[in-house]
Amino acid sequence: MDLKTFKKKFIKNGFSKWATAVLLAMTVLFIILGLIKNMSGEKYAQLLKDHKEDEGTYAFIDVAAFDEWICTYGDETYYLLFDRSGEAYLAVVSNSVMKDMERKASAVEDYTHYFDDSYRLYGLVKSTSYQVISNVEDVYGLDADQYRQYFGRCYINTTENPNTNRAWMWWTFSMFSGMFGLVFLIIWLGSESQFNKECRNFTEEEFAEAARMLDENDKKQQIIFGDDFVICRGPAMLMRYSDMLWMHLVDTYYYGAKMGRSVRVYSRSKNSFKIYPTIKDSESELNDIMNRIRDKKPDILVGYNNENAKRYRSMTKK
């Protein structure tokens, strides 16, 4: 029996593999859903001229001319747009779209760009804030009545559509599932690398013996002590007693909260594995694990201290 065949006996290491696959698949799905939701539904858009005051309407405008930017407020840049009838509109336009509009404009006169063919923009009709109204009035020297006559109380935000928030919701989900998927991928690759490194010098007879031990013991039994090595089903570990050089108890913390206790065993190949008790934080089981290993490997270093750390480093120097 070779290493690849034997690894199939270790069912628990597959969890990280499948968790990675599921989470990364969910990430792709959430991204696709976000893209679908972000589709503007342009066939349902209304002509902006007929819905200039209808806040929340998804509308379009065929731009015949536009002025360079009027003002900025927050992260938004406001422009003045004109349709073929000469009607004026206040609009928020992204930098990338504005660059495309400037490139496609056929003529420029006194800061106003003109199109031979109309340039269609889609966006969400929104209420104009007092600060923006005040800025526009200052730029063009308008009073409140004149402003309302020209622009009304709303503007069109061409960077948004009715599904923008829903799209970002799915993209947020994709970010979190992707992060967790990456964590499980690192765990899976790390455990695979460690396991392969520790078992690369095992003989086919040793793998066959380990497989026999797995078959003869209950699948619910997580730790199996053999005559020559220890097997853990999850996280997967196969280590000869003769290769064990140092062990000590270790506490696992997550954001400052204690999650559990285990026995960390260091091998001759500079690997380290954690053996977890079947009952969380069971001191008697943790002591039993250490005693059974020490019975098979009497000269193993026990306990965490600087002296043992130095001795382990010296024993693993090549």
Give the radius of gyration: 34 Å
User: How many DSSP E strands?
Assistant: 15
CATH superfamily of the domain at 217-315: Pleckstrin-homology domain (PH domain)/Phosphotyrosine-binding domain (PTB)
Strand content: 25-35%
Report the order of strands and helices. Answer: HHEEEEEHEEHHEHHEEEEEEHEH
The name of the CATH topology of the domain at 217-315 is PH-domain like
Number of helices: 9
The main sheet comes to:
5 strands, mixed, barrel
The CATH class of the domain at 217-315 is: Mainly Beta
The CATH architecture of the domain at 217-315: Roll
Distance between the termini: 30 Å
Q: In order across it, which strands form the biggest sheet?
A: 2-4-5-8-7
**Mean pLDDT over all positions:** 81
What coarse outline follows from CA principal-axis ratios?
rod-shaped
Helix percent reads 40-55%
Poorly predicted sequence stretches spanning 5 or more consecutive residues? none
Q: Provide the structure class.
A: alpha+beta
